[in-house]
Write a structure and sequence with these properties.
The radius of gyration is 26 Å and the shape is elongated. 47% of the residues lie in helices and 18% in strands. Strands 4-3-11-14 form a 4-stranded antiparallel beta sheet. It has a 3-stranded antiparallel beta sheet with strand order 5-10-15. The protein is built from 13 helices and 15 strands. The chain has 371 residues and is α+β, with helices and mostly antiparallel strands. The termini are far apart. It has helices spanning 14-29, 34-42, 47-54, 60-71, 74-79, 87-94, 143-148, 178-182, 189-215, 217-221, 236-259, 320-346, 349-369, and strands at 102-106, 111-115, 120-128, 140-141, 152-154, 159-160, 163-164, 226-227, 230-231, 262-269, 275-283, 286-288, 291-293, 296-299, 307-313. α4 (60-71) packs antiparallel against α12. The longest helix is centred in the middle third of the chain and has 27 residues, at 189-215.
């Protein structure tokens, strides 16, 4: 008799469970990925890489916080608890530059960025080519002397927010950028542009699929895509589309603020006739920032093209324009994420799966360009 009065509830379709779980969880996953986002942004040196980061983004909160740490107003820094943060900490975690506060060292397994004065000496020296006995080939130069001797010829550079990229003073007291020069050439521009194009097409593809699932599902798939058995609400697709575009744009600006906070310059190495210019780094063993490092002699391979890269913190970037850009990027990103989230909640669950798949693909591609 008791069992007869127990109410029975019929099991919902797989869509109910998948929609409730994935529609809520999948968009929130994009908020995380702290270390991955920091690593990618800290090595970005072009707007193309900013586009790669922005499309189907991962680490949204990290990008917003990073932009505020680099160029945000004091009120925004107070909100995230970074008002008294030293500049060296920001540079070490988010920028590609080195300075008197941040250096790069070899720990026996790889290059690490650490706060502290650099115990590394950067050397340029001549090595005679086969069959050539040049009496001047035993000279050794430091970075400044190599520039004064015109061994390093700067490539044409654009203006970075009003600051010339070949500003000699900006690079005078910076620590050596060992990782950028000792590990071989970076990913080619063609490969970066291909990945950026894939990212744009993937993100646009998700928006197009969302629109087709709402307005053309009957014509294309023989039936309407529903939400919990009911037609999709009219607000869902516009919110999702506008929110996605706003989020991507906001992420691009956040990444751009961080990327433009470092000034990069590339030099062509001008080798005298009969000699080869070699580059090496002599690391002195000792304790830096409470960490023990051994002594190493690091020499660049002859297979690496004859270019030399140095980055420095861009002191010209901090101003009203950068602050305004950071505020706008923060607000646009947050509003875009909320709009996208609400829109995805109102759409068919397969749209959320499509956005999650795009994020996974772009995460793999970002890892590939940072190999």
């Amino acid at each position: 008799v008791f069992a007869a009065h127990i109410p029975f509830v019929s099991a919902g379709s797989g869509e109910d469970f998948s929609n409730n779980l994935l529609s809520d969880l999948a968009p929130l996953l994009a908020l995380f990925g702290d270390q991955f986002a920091k690593q990618f942004m800290s090595q970005s040196m072009s707007s193309t890489e900013d586009i790669i980061f922005a499309c189907a983004p991962l680490g949204i909160l990290t990008a917003i916080v990073g932009a505020i740490r680099v160029g945000g107003p004091t009120s925004f820094k107070a909100i995230i608890g970074r008002t008294t943060e030293p500049k060296g900490m920001v540079e070490m975690e988010l920028l590609s530059s080195t300075s008197t506060d941040v250096c790069e060292l070899w720990d026996g397994e790889g290059f690490v960025r650490i706060m502290g004065a650099s115990p590394v000496i950067e050397l340029f020296y001549f090595e005679p080519r086969d069959g050539v006995d040049d009496r001047t080939s035993d000279k050794i130069f430091g970075f400044e002397m190599a520039r004064n001797k015109d061994l390093l010829q700067p490539k044409p550079a654009s203006q970075l927010w009003g600051a010339p990229a070949n500003d000699r003073e900006a690079f005078r007291n910076t620590a050596p950028n060992i990782a950028l020069n000792a590990c071989g050439p970076r990913v080619s521009k063609l490969e970066l542009r291909a990945v950026a194009l894939i990212g744009v097409l993937l993100q646009l593809g998700v928006i197009v699929y969302a629109g087709l699932s709402v307005y053309w599902s009957t014509a294309l798939w023989g039936g309407k895509f529903t939400k919990d058995g009911r037609p999709v609400q009219v607000y869902a697709f516009p919110l999702m589309a506008i929110g996605t575009v706003a989020l991507v744009f906001g992420m691009f600006i956040c990444a751009h603020v961080v990327e433009r906070s470092s000034t990069e310059i590339t030099w062509n190495i001008d080798e005298p006739i009969g000699t080869r210019v070699k580059i090496a780094w002599l690391q002195k063993g000792g304790v830096v920032n409470d960490q023990q490092f051994n002594s190493y002699f690091i020499q660049r391979s002859d297979q690496i093209p004859g270019i030399f890269v140095r980055t420095a913190r861009n002191s010209h970037v901090f101003g009203l324009f950068c602050t305004t850009l950071t505020i706008a990027a923060t607000l646009v990103s947050l509003c875009g994420f909320v709009s996208q989230f609400v829109g995805l909640r109102g759409l068919h669950w397969t749209v959320t799966i499509a956005q999650l798949a795009a994020t996974a693909i772009m995460t793999a591609l970002r890892a590939t360009v940072r190999r």
